[in-house]
Amino acid sequence: MRLYSLSVLYKGDPKVHLLKAAYDVSTFNFFQRSSVQEFMTFTSQLITERSALGSRASVKEQEYLCHVYVRSDGLAGVVIADNEYPQRVCFTLLDKVLDEFSRQVSKMDWPSGSPATISYSALDGYLSKYQVQTSRT
To answer: Which domain of life is it from (predicted)?
Structure first.
């Protein structure tokens, strides 16, 4: 069971844009990592774009499950995990991250924000904290 990506996005009027993201692509071949990360960013934006405000959904994309939560204020979160990761845990994580993000980052910064301009550093910590370590025999 593994988490690969945790993203916070803003679903604005014209389009969706990424505010902050954390990735764990360590299980992929070194030469594949940047393209896998791009795929995850693109998929997160696409799923958010196609989801209604105030909705939650889980979408299967290749061998991944993408869990999306779009709040009614336009703030959205996406977790990309493998098929075995518990769905309920993903939505609990998204609730926690979006609540904390909305308390720490001004709502006025969401429409124009980008990963370079938004200062919110908790995503990497959440991604590693919620990572399920499989026991090695």
So the answer is: Eukaryota
